[in-house]
Specification:
Elements lengths: L10 H5 L5 E7 L2 E7 L2 E5 L4 E5 L5 H9 L1 E6 L5 H6 L10 H4 L4 E2 L8 E2 L4 E9 L3 H4 L1 E11 L9 E3 L5 E3 L11
Antiparallel strand pairs: 1-2, 1-5, 3-4, 4-9, 5-8, 6-7, 8-9, 10-11
Bound molecules: flavin mononucleotide.
């Protein structure tokens, strides 16, 4: 392969293509939604997820105080709403109302989930050691919900800027014997 140098500022565009998620938070009667693509699985079961949340986001304060959040996975049907939630600040507006998203009830945590997302996880903050330095939270998924009627969810995958991929063809690769 004839590889050439890639600008360091573009590195994230090749690595961040896990499903775009919508993180819901709430504290003292105020709830919010933000879009996120810098996240990673950290363990199978119990499932631990790590993510970077900038302290410039309104969601950051809500998460820090409540220590709970929802991870909601949107599909292409609500792509524009999902991205819009990542372009505006929730301090003075209610993004559920502004974008016509329905707050769903959580069973364990006190944070609304998003009804229009095909899967939603209820999470509790498990580790904040790297929050001050990197904005990196580790959360534990304590309850998970999925709409199994959706067979091939067309999730969104961020490629940087205004560019996204939609999940496509699925293939199976057998392990070597
Ligand atoms: C596709 C996409 C992915 C994003 N990923 C992240 C992320 O991983 N971490 C982060 O801190 N902000 C991320 N953002 C930016 C926040 O979603 C954005 O700053 C948002 O307005 C924060 O909302 P809030 O201030 O109401 O909390 C992303 C935005 C978009 C559109």
């Amino acid at each position: 392969m004839a590889k050439r140098p890639l600008s360091l500022s573009k590195v994230y565009t090749l690595l961040e293509s896990g499903a775009v998620i919508m993180v819901t938070t709430a504290y003292k009667g105020k709830s919010n939604i933000m879009t996120m693509s810098w996240h990673t699985m950290m363990d199978f079961e119990p499932p631990f997820v790590g993510f970077v949340m900038s302290d410039r986001n309104y969601s950051f304060g809500l998460l820090r105080k409540s220590r709970e959040c929802g991870i909601n996975i949107p599909t292409v049907e609500i792509a524009e709403k999902a991205v819009a939630c990542g372009r505006i600040h929730g301090g003075k507006i209610n993004k559920f109302e502004k974008f016509g998203l329905t707050p769903g009830i959580s069973s364990i945590i006190g944070v609304p989930l998003i009804e229009e997302c095909y899967a939603s996880f209820e999470c509790r903050v498990a580790d904040t050691k790297m929050v001050n330095k990197y904005g990196f939270f580790v959360v534990e998924v304590v309850k998970a919900w999925i709409d199994k009627a959706i067979k091939n969810p067309q999730t969104l995958h961020h490629l940087g800027g205004n560019n996204f991929m939609v999940a496509g063809k699925r293939i199976q690769i057998k392990s070597p014997k």
